[in-house]
Amino acid sequence: RADGIILTNAHVVAGATKISVAMRDGQTFSAKLLGLDELNDLAVLSIDAKNLPVASMGTSRGLLIGEWAIAIGNPYGFVLGNTEPSVTAGVISATGRNLTARTEGGGLYVDMIQTDASINPGNSGGPLVNAMGQVVGVNSSIYSPSGGSVGLGFAIPIDRARRVADDLIAHGRARQPWIGVRIDEPSTEPGNRGSLSRGAVVSLVTPGSPAATAGLRKGDVLVRSRERTLRNSYDWEAELLDLRVGDDVPLTVRRGSNDMEVHVTVADRPEVTA
Hints:
Mean pLDDT: 88
Distance between the termini: 36 Å
Strand order of the largest sheet: 6-7-8-11-10-9
Low-confidence stretches: none
Structural class: mainly beta
Radius of gyration: 20 Å
Order of helices and strands: EHEEEEEEEEEEHEEEHEEHEEE
């Protein structure tokens, strides 16, 4: 924002005792961490500056496979004697991508935007923009056997990032939407790929939770939430990240051979014991 509010990745600032923000002209500001959410891998910083140039915000809804995508950042910036960022161009390779391998941190990379625009270490936290220069994602991770870009870059959808940023600015933390169900993880083994499309199977309902109040039971299969089809637990995790605490959410539930609709009020996730 023009008043010095900055969105970046949580892993960029995790563990830092001092944070600095460098402008393209070399001017450097000391930054304050307003809030950090490791689950979504997002953080909000503040610097004491006014009338800053700002990125134009777009939306991550309705992205077209094959449309132009431009990644902005400063890869390997500490080994270069320049402060200006660089850009790489490619296309939107896919949307709704789920990275099933767990990372070293607490980040959950589901429903991501995939791009073949080169993303390297140092691009993290930078914007992924469309052909009109509007931000559609936050560059976050790469998949690479070599450590360098091989055309498999992933960005957090900007609509989710803005929701998390609003929470971090208002509350200093991101409220984690929760209804009180545990969902079976599908197998990603080659012979069991069918489990990726059987729906989100409920393996546990927490007593007294919103899910229990709505009448959900162990063995129920969540097949739809709002406009999102739920093919597996990754789709459900992605949907949770896009919900807001207090939302009244219509869920289509398959119980045996019957489908029914229930409404669940999203709560703020309790402590770790839940």
